Amino acid sequence: MKTTEAGDARTRLAQDLAVSVAGALREDLEQQERVTLVLSGGSTPKPFMQALSQLELPWSRVDITLADERWVSTDHDDSNDRFVRSNMLINAAAEARFHPLVNDGKTPEEGAEEVEQRLTALAWPASVVVLGMGGDGHTASLFPDSDQLDDGLESGALVIAARAPSVGQPRISLTRDRLMRSRRRYLHLNGADKKTVLARAMAGNDRHELPIRAFLDAPLALYWAP
Ligand SMILES: O=C1O[C@H](COP(=O)(O)O)[C@@H](O)[C@H](O)[C@H]1O
């Protein structure tokens, strides 16, 4: 496929996903006062967030948080917080309330408890969780080479501090348990490489090898473009 065609397909996919997510939030907002939307960082979600931000919704009743975050300052290039503020909390969605995963703690280990308390106050189950996936099969910050992977997959905590040799910055991540406390989950992927990784994940069951597997045993809507 030519690059421009792939780009068009990714843009259409991002728009379709935005329409689905907005529909889900609207549906839940008819039943409850506030709803929770959990988003992922990384490069894939940018056009999705921009499309979603333009859709009409009672955004002031939407609480947005992240599946994971790098423990960096909020003006750092790698900050998901900054990414959400620049690409999601704009247009109509500027009215939404954002709940960051970072605080003044020097490390995620130091800051995690306060983040846990803060996020506990949101409406759970979340209406929507949008996951991404890395080429190593990680999702959120549940990395195959992380000493905290078992905790992330098994513990009933809301968040964990996570470190992995494969990534430089310390992270904070929602646990599998919390990500699964959601009415709808979407997996947003672009590219042939990620399709191959997902196919491998679907063909096996070792969650330590490919942590995304921990999310494949329950409904997960796949949004993939070449
Ligand atoms: O590091 C991360 O990577 C994955 C995928 O990122 P992408 O750049 O390939 O879209 C993301 O889902 C995850 O939340 C993030 O921490």
Automatic annotation (TrEMBL):
UniProt GO molecular function: 6-phosphogluconolactonase activity
Reaction(s) catalysed (UniProt annotation): 6-phospho-D-glucono-1,5-lactone + H2O = 6-phospho-D-gluconate + H(+)
Keyword Signal: no
CDD domains: 6PGL (cd01400)
Keywords carried by this UniProt record: Hydrolase
Entries under Pfam families matching the protein: Glucosamine_iso
Pathway participation: Carbohydrate degradation; pentose phosphate pathway; D-ribulose 5-phosphate from D-glucose 6-phosphate (oxidative stage): step 2/3
Glucosamine/galactosamine-6-phosphate isomerase domain residues: 10-218
Protein's UniProt keywords contain Thylakoid: no
UniProt family annotation: Belongs to the glucosamine/galactosamine-6-phosphate isomerase family. 6-phosphogluconolactonase subfamily.
This protein's name: 6-phosphogluconolactonase
